Amino acid sequence: MTKAKTPANLTITPRDRRFGRDGQYRRWWLNDDPYATAFYNAMSVTFPKGEGFFIDSVRQFRDGASPRLTAEIRAFTQQEVMHTREHVAFNRHVTDQGYDISRLEQRVDDEIALTKGRPPIASLVATMCLEHFTAIMAHELIADPRHLAGADQAAADLWRWHAIEEIEHKGVAYDTWLHATKNWSRWTRWRVRATVMLLVTVRFTKGRTQGMLDLLAQDGLTGARVKWRLFRYAFLRPGMARKIAGAWASFFLPGFHPWKHDDRALIALADSDYKDARLPKPKSGASPQPA
């Protein structure tokens, strides 16, 4: 069996775009649907601090990496810096609509705090697991246009732009993990990543669900019926959670690698919208510059 790996001809290309600066999103910016809007708003709140955590976790293991992986970590960092900037701006729109996101942000802080005092490899493996989540959600977001149907245009553009780059750099954290654990046995690697993925999945699902319910409660939507409507949105129609279940489970297979499923064709479906924003490929040894 051929071992899966990051494609040799893959280029990770930061695209410097700004979204939603010229206007205000609707309160329920996704198809006038409070459930759909809460789903993505709760996700967006996690990104500024979460992606800072991802950057720090991966960059700790640059030493001794191959020139190619070093360059990919650099491009990954640049992409994540710009994702952070744009979701800070997006989250400002959320608060401008009157939502209090302080409890959602505190949950992110609490989740990140779980890695405090632990070896750096613990942060890296958590990052690798969460990057798998973002990559498979990004795949589904672009593959099925129904997820963003009826969205305010700037918001839809933001999420598609973010999804493109999540697909593009989906192997970086995993390849960094392989580099950092090159002296581990295959069994130890599998056991650690499988265990952490299960823990991350529980915490991720619980934290984001609490965040969505918090935002919905601020719209006066509470109770069992609201929980059912949210479940129906996530698992039935359009069913993001259900549709990524198989890709999530593939993480546990022997020989897994994010690029075992080459979905670069999805990038091409949306990338032309951002071609004028592509930054030049960083030169070796150059530092990424936040735009």
Description:
With 291 residues, this protein is mostly helical. It has one domain: Ferritin. It contains 11 helices and no strands. The chain has helices spanning 34-59, 67-96, 102-113, 120-143, 153-168, 172-180, 186-218, 224-235, 240-243, 245-249, 264-271. The longest helix is centred in the C-terminal third of the chain and has 33 residues, at 186-218. InterPro entries: UCP07580. It comes from Stakelama pacifica.
Looking at this protein, list some descriptive labels.
single chain; 291 residues; mainly alpha; Ferritin; 11 helices; globular; disordered C terminus; UCP07580; Metal-dependent hydrolase
Topology:
Blueprint: H1 34-59, H2 67-96, H3 102-113, H4 120-143, H5 153-168, H6 172-180, H7 186-218, H8 224-235, H9 240-243, H10 245-249, H11 264-271
Helix pairs in contact: 1-2, 1-3, 1-4, 1-7, 2-5, 2-6, 3-7, 4-5, 4-6, 4-7, 5-11
CATH topology: Ferritin
Query: How many extended strands?
Result: 0
- CATH secondary-structure class: Mainly Alpha
The proportion of strand residues reads under 5%
Overall spatial form: globular
- Decide which structural class fits the backbone: mainly alpha
- Under the CATH scheme, which architecture would be assigned? Up-down Bundle
Task: Give the radius of gyration.
Answer: 19 Å
Quickly count the helices. Answer: 11
- What are the segments in which pLDDT stays under 50 over at least 5 consecutive residues? 284-291
The arrangement of helices and strands along the chain is HHHHHHHHHHH
| Total domain units | 1
What's the overall average pLDDT, rounded? 93
**How would you characterize the largest beta sheet?**
none
What is the share of helical residues?
55-70%
What is the rounded distance between the termini?
Answer: 43 Å
